[in-house]
Amino acid sequence: MQLQLQQLLPVYFDEAPRHTSEVWRRDLSFSKGEYVKIVAPSGSGKTSLMHFLYGLRNEYSGNIVYNNQNLRNYSAEDIAGYRKDHVSIVFQNMRLFPEQTVFENLELKRQLNPFHPVEKIAEMAQRLGIGNKLSSKSRICSYGEQQRVAIIRALMQPFDFLLLDEPFSHLDEVNSQNAMQLMLEEAKLRNAAIIFADLERIDYFPYTRLFHL
Ligand SMILES: Nc1ncnc2c1ncn2[C@@H]1O[C@H](COP(=O)(O)OP(=O)(O)OP(=O)(O)O)[C@@H](O)[C@H]1O
């Protein structure tokens, strides 16, 4: 299982300033089991990159190739299958259903392609300190609580690659470390890779490769 970036560049970026990037306009290949840290100052295209890799947007030159298949050639059905089985994401802006409860947000995701039994939802919520929020509508949860829900939601499905777009922006150090530990355990269970994009280096992500965007 390989995810390849071939000379990738957002179409809305100027070419000139990008020569310093270790990601844009490069040929890179990520494999299952790798922990990849991408340090990305604000505005360097972190969210763009994550959305491209998730198959949400394709305003880029170059190619993204998953297991020798170019994402550009995927049908809508192929993209749905790619997201269901192979790649999961924690969005920077969470994207929960505001009128659904925390439990419903998680269970909706779980039912699409169950990797864990339903009991795991409460177990993970307890572990991240939001066990008492399961029956609250997600819109009334704090940003930090919503971020933990978004993290657990990403772990409800199978994946080979877990994409993290500033997943701890609303969390304190202790909560971030707990959530990181859970994601590492879940990645290990699947022998999956983690691609973690953030503004800065953080100590508690044991990356095996480091890139500056
Ligand atoms: N669809 C688009 N069309 C034109 N410009 C865009 C588009 N999407 C993003 N940009 C621009 O590209 C740059 C990078 O945006 P992006 O959201 O990827 O950055 P980021 O590194 O995630 O930033 P932040 O850390 O501040 O969230 C920004 O200047 C943004 O305005």
TrEMBL record:
SMART domains: AAA. The keyword Translocase applies. Residues 3-210 form the ABC transporter domain. This is ABC transporter. The keyword Nucleotide-binding applies. InterPro entries: AAA+_ATPase, ABC_transporter-like_ATP-bd, ABC_transporter-like_CS, P-loop_NTPase. Keywords: ATP-binding, Nucleotide-binding, Translocase. GO terms for molecular function: ATP binding; ATP hydrolysis activity.
